[in-house]
Amino acid sequence: MFNDIPRRQLLLHFFLLIATLVSTFLAGGLAFGVTLILILGAHEMGHYLMTRKWGVSATLPYFIPAPPPFIAGTFGAFIKMRSPIPNRRVLLEIGAAGPIAGFVVCIPALIIGLTLSEIKEPQFQLGFSFGSSITLSFLTKMILGVSPENADIVLHPIAFAGWIGLFITALNLLPIGQLDGGHIIYALFEKNYQIISKITFIILIPLGYFSWHGWFIWAAIVAVFGFRHPPLIDESTPLTNKDKKIGLISIAIFVVTFIPAPIIF
Hints:
Elements lengths: L6 H22 L1 H25 L7 E4 L8 E5 L9 H29 L1 E2 L9 E2 L3 H11 L8 E2 L2 H16 L7 H9 L4 H18 L3 H12 L15 H17 L5 E2 L1
Antiparallel strand pairs: 1-2, 3-5, 4-6
Helix pairs in contact: 1-2, 2-3, 2-5, 3-4, 3-5, 3-6, 3-9, 5-9, 6-9, 7-8
């Protein structure tokens, strides 16, 4: 499967993977690091395997380690496309494969992690707490019998990795630019893509003011890279009903993973 990848390139990917495993271990422990790497790896390999299916040239995942003070120990991972996307079907399937695969791995991680988590009064106040998504609230209620908004929950490292996985999934599904959500919305609603992207950008501003200042950073990134989506080789190929269902599933995943206020002070 990887015979066409130069040995030096494979070594680089392997080195970055090990470096990220070390940095996530330093950030949260072995269970945290392995779980987060599995979630990120599933996401990026979902993209990669779909590029192989459609004959689109792309790199293996590049994992990005981060210094231990960074709460997750990683800045995520990405693959780089080396050839243009043929049509809307391929764009949608490649764009959706990553978030769907990552979400599928997040769910068992959260179930296992929440089972190992505790409900108790913290020994000291950190001055902030982590927000909850629909998915996390539902699983917490089912497993621990409480809502995360109404209880002090000490997340097990596996559960915390699952929380980060949900957050990353939602960020990637924002319907803007080169994010996975941008690819999906362009494939589904090409004529309305610009409107949807700009509305999303506008919404990030009040979210940054009222919920979490980090949304200002995302708004700035969008402003720098712009809303324009690269053209496809063939813009006329229609989506099948299966493709549309995949797109709707992706939108649903965005809804249930989105956290308006990831960090609450």
